[in-house]
Design a protein that fits this description.
There is one protein chain. Helix content is 70%, strand content 0%. With 149 residues, the chain is an all-alpha fold.
Length: 149
C-alpha cells in the first residue's frame, strides 16, 4: 500500500474528525463510568475476570482500533476500508432505534448528549460518500515505475 498523494478533500478531513471525535467521546465516557463499563463487560464476556485495570485496557484497545480505518482512508485512500466502515457503522446503527426508545423513556434521567456519538458516526458515514470523497477515493493509483526496475 502506498500513501495517497495530493490534498485530502474537506469531506475526508471531516470524516476523520467526526470518527475520531466519536471514538474519543466513547473512550472518555467509558473512563468516567468505569464501574458501569466493568459491569457491562462482565455481562458480555463473563469468562474474563474483569477488574478496573482490564476495563481500562479494553476501553483503550477499542479507542486504538478506531484509528485503523481512519488511517486506511485518510492516509492510503482505501476504498475497501470505506465499505468496511460502512458495514460496521450500519451494524452498529441497527441498535439505534432501541437506544432512542430507551432514551425517550428515560429523558429525565439520561442526558441528551447520549445522541452526540451516534450523530458523529452518521456524519462520518455521510462524509465518506460525498462527491469529493468519491472522487478522491476513486482516483486510479499511479504505477510506480521504480518498482519494476
Amino acid at each position: 500500500m502506498r500513501l495517497a498523494t495530493g490534498p485530502r478533500p474537506f469531506s475526508i478531513k471531516l470524516f476523520a474528525l467526526a470518527f475520531l471525535t466519536a471514538a474519543l467521546n466513547t473512550y472518555i465516557s467509558g473512563l468516567s463510568q468505569l464501574p458501569q463499563m466493568q459491569a457491562i463487560y462482565e455481562l458480555r464476556y463473563p469468562w474474563i475476570d474483569w477488574n478496573r485495570d482490564w476495563t481500562i485496557v479494553a476501553l483503550s484497545a477499542m479507542f486504538s482500533i478506531a484509528f485503523i480505518p481512519v488511517v486506511w482512508i485518510y492516509c492510503f485512500a482505501s476504498r475497501m476500508a470505506r465499505w468496511l466502515v460502512t458495514l460496521f457503522i450500519a451494524i452498529r446503527l441497527l441498535d439505534l432505534p432501541q437506544q432512542l426508545t430507551t432514551w425517550f423513556s428515560m429523558r429525565d434521567v439520561v442526558s441528551p448528549l447520549i445522541l452526540f456519538e451516534p450523530t458523529l458516526i452518521v456524519l462520518a458515514l455521510i462524509c465518506l460518500f460525498m462527491p469529493g470523497s468519491n472522487q478522491w477515493l476513486a482516483k486510479k493509483k499511479e504505477t510506480d515505475l521504480a518498482v519494476f526496475e
